[in-house]
Structure formats: C-alpha cells, structure tokens
Design brief:
heterodimer, A: 108 residues, 44% helix
Chain lengths: 108, 223
C-alpha cells in the first residue's frame, strides 16, 4: 500500500479550503482555490446581488433638524474608535458638489 | 453623486468611504462607494459561494441569496474590516477572504435557520430577580414546604455575607440561565446599567457568589 505523504491530519483543513469544500482563509489556499475554480461561470451575471436593494432595505428613517439631514449621534465616537482616514481632496469636491446641488445652490 | 463617480477609486479608499455612512453629510458618498464596491466583488463572491455551496448540496438560488446576505452584512457592519490586518495579502484578496469568512458565517446561520436551531431559548420576558421567591403561597406538601424554607434560609444566610449586587446577580443567573447559552443581551444590559458595573465584574461576582453558596451548602449538609 502506498503511503500518502500529501494529506496529513495537520494539513487536512488547508486541503479542504484549497479544494473548495470550505472557503479559503489565506493566500496559499486562495491561490489554489482560484486555480481550480478561478473561471467565473457565464451564467453569473452579477445581478443576483443588487446593492441598491441592500441600501433600500437597510435605510433608516431620515430626520431633519432645520434644513440639515441628521442620522446618528454615534458617528463621532465610531470615527474615533475606527480611526479611518481623512477624505482626499477630489472626493471632498464631489461631496460638496452633490450637497450644493441638493440644497439648490449653483456649484461654483 | 452616482457610483460611477467613485468606480475607479482603489478598494481600500472605497471601504474607507463606506465607513462614512453614519455621517449625514457623507451618506451619498458611502452609498455610491458601496454600490461600486459591490459591483467590483459580487461576481467573484457569487461564484465562490456557488462552488463551495454545491459541495454542501445547496442550489444556486440559495447560494445567490447567501452572497447577497454577505454584502448586506458588509453594508451594515463595514467597521469590522481593517486594512492593517491583511498581512501579506493584497487588498483585493484580503477583501475576498474577509467576505468569504462572512459567507461562511452566513452559510452557518442559514443551516441553523433550516434546522430551527436559531430560535432563542429565551422568550424575552426575563427580568432581574432581586429577592428569592415567596414559598408561603405554593401549593406543595407541608414537608416539601419545610424543606424549601430550610434551603432558602441557608441561601439567605450565605448571601448575607456578600454585597446586595452579588445577590441580584446570583439570583438572576440562577433564575434564567439555560445550559450552554448566555443570558439575553437586553437582560445583561439592564443588569449592567442597574448595578452600574461592567460585564467582567458581573462574571466575577457570579463566580464568587456561586462558589460561596456551594461551599456553604456543602459544609452545612455534612454537619
């Protein structure tokens, strides 16, 4: 009987992840997984997942204080907690443009 | 603002923008970024969900549903993803691995829903218990009543050695805790707020009270 040197008790989880029985969790497993299943089936159009529906479903009721749209008090705390980066200039421009067009002002 | 405005942004920027969704001024940016993010990764995630789901006997429609749930979770809780935890993975692969981990949890949840396991063992009526229940009104035999009164007296005596907070925590846990399940979150929150202590302190108090009462009952039984 030949001895199997490749699959041992220690690396069996890695093999399961590489061969698609469970999801890959690191670079090696993902690379092997993509070798086996990298081609995306033509029957997948992408429309199976609709981001607009997800946003609609999770929309919270919007409140206005004066003319200002208002969602959550927790924002500042969350920002401190997660320490996310400052927005780059070209994005700030976009945000400003869209908020100007919302409030009826002409963009500069 | 539409998703096309941000479609060429790098993935880590998109995720940063999505994290702005709690802020009223940037919610449009967050939504546009989420749409662009979903368009970028959805085919990959659907494909992998189908491949792995097939091995577990799920049909394509179920796998698509789960893929949608993955993105739904990401939109709800984008703060869980942290770029600095990626290690040697590229940001794209890191996001895929992260989303697949979410997918694994979604598959588990789905299986639990099917088997009915996800139903809570608690019914939502649980409340903080401050005092031991009254035994006088119970319809039991006199002997049983005497036994119960005796036991209650012992526990009261043991609890008297500890603070009132210990007593409330001990009684609440004894009354509601089910084997293998934590107390409902709302009840724990109420407990923390009413007693003005943290969950770790509750854990320690519970252990102290349990140890003391076990010890007390043991020593008095052997007398």
């Amino acid at each position: 009987m030949t001895q199997n040197n490749f699959i041992t008790a220690e690396n069996s989880r890695e093999w399961l992840a590489s061969t698609g029985f469970i999801f890959p969790t690191d670079k090696v497993e993902l690379t092997r997984y993509n070798l086996l299943f990298g081609d995306i089936d033509d029957s997948i159009t992408g429309n199976e997942v609709d981001p607009f529906r997800i946003i609609r479903q999770n929309a919270k009721p919007v409140r206005y204080i004066g003319k200002k749209r208002y969602t959550s008090d927790l924002y500042e705390q969350k920002m401190v907690a997660t320490n996310i980066n400052k927005l780059p200039a070209h994005i700030m421009k976009l945000v400003k443009k869209s908020s100007d067009s919302q409030s009826g002002k002409q963009p500069e | 603002m539409t998703w096309e405005d941000v479609k060429d942004e790098p993935t880590d920027s998109l995720i940063d923008f999505i994290k702005y969704k709690e802020h009223a001024d940037y919610i449009e940016l967050a939504e546009a970024s989420f749409v662009a993010f979903t368009f970028r990764f959805r085919k990959e995630i659907i494909s992998k969900c189908r491949n792995t789901g097939r091995k577990w006997d799920y049909d394509n429609a179920t796998c698509d549903l789960i893929a949608e749930r993955v993105f739904d979770r990401f939109w709800k809780y984008p703060f869980g993803f942290e770029k600095n935890k990626c290690g040697n993975l590229s940001i794209e692969n890191c996001v895929i691995v992260y989303l697949l981990r979410v997918a694994r949890n979604c598959f588990n949840d789905h299986a639990k829903e099917l088997s009915g396991e996800s139903h809570s063992v608690y019914d939502g009526t649980e409340d903080i218990v401050v005092e031991l229940p009254s035994i006088e009104g119970l319809k039991v035999s006199d002997k049983r009543k005497a036994d119960l009164l005796d036991a209650q007296e012992k526990i009261e005596k043991a609890l008297a050695q500890l603070s009132p907070k210990h007593k409330i925590i001990y009684l609440t846990y004894k009354a509601h805790e089910k084997d293998g399940y934590k107390l409902p979150r709302t009840l724990l929150k109420k407990l923390r707020e009413e007693l003005d202590i943290g969950q770790n302190t509750i854990r320690v108090y519970k252990k102290e009270a349990t140890n003391l009462i076990d010890q007390y009952l043991k020593s008095h039984d052997t007398e």
